[in-house]
């Protein structure tokens, strides 16, 4: 399952990231923020308008915002 379809409030572990569909600079930014295989994440908030963009993720002690298009490149499993 990809992160964009994962339920809010539940914790997931990233199993893989499809770096090929992300722009190089976007991929580097996500890696610098801790988005990589093995990291535990939780969706803490979704945008309120039609696209439900952006997603607020908790990674460790940080909360970051990513686009749903980026979340679609991230495969997760329930932790």
Would you write up a description of this structure?
Residues 1-78 form the Ferrous iron transporter FeoA-like domain. Pfam families: FeoA. Keywords: Iron. This is Ferrous iron transport protein A. The protein is of the alpha+beta class. It has one domain (3-78): SH3 type barrels. It is built from 2 helices and 5 strands. The chain has helices at 24-32, 68-71; strands at 11-17, 40-46, 55-59, 62-66, 74-78. Strands 4-3-2-1-5 form a 5-stranded antiparallel sheet. It starts with 10 loop residues before the first strand and ends with a strand.
List the helices and strands and how they pair.
Layout: E1 11-17, H1 24-32, E2 40-46, E3 55-59, E4 62-66, H2 68-71, E5 74-78
Antiparallel strand pairs: 1-2, 1-5, 2-3, 3-4
Summed up:
Keywords: Iron. InterPro entries: Fe-transptr_FeoA-like, FeoA, FeoA_core_dom, Transcriptional_repressor_C. By secondary structure, the chain is an alpha+beta fold.
| The first-level CATH class name | Mainly Beta
Indicate the low-confidence ranges by residue numbers.
none
Order of helices and strands: EHEEEHE
Contiguous helical run count: 2
For the sheet with most strands, the description reads:
5 strands, antiparallel
What shape does the CA trace take?
A: globular
Tell me the distance between the termini. 13 Å
Number of strands: 5
User: What strand line-up does the widest sheet have?
Assistant: 4-3-2-1-5
Backbone CA Rg:
11 Å
Estimate what percentage of residues fall within beta strands. 35-45%
The CATH topology is given as SH3 type barrels
Q: Label the CATH architecture.
A: Roll
- The secondary-structure class comes to alpha+beta
- Structural domain tally: 1
Helix content: 10-25%
The pLDDT mean sits at: 93
Q: What is the CATH superfamily classification? A: Ferrous iron transport protein A (FeoA)
- Describe the oligomeric state of these chains in a short phrase: single chain
Protein name: Ferrous iron transport protein A
Keywords: Iron
Domain Ferrous iron transporter FeoA-like: 1-78
Pfam family, one: FeoA
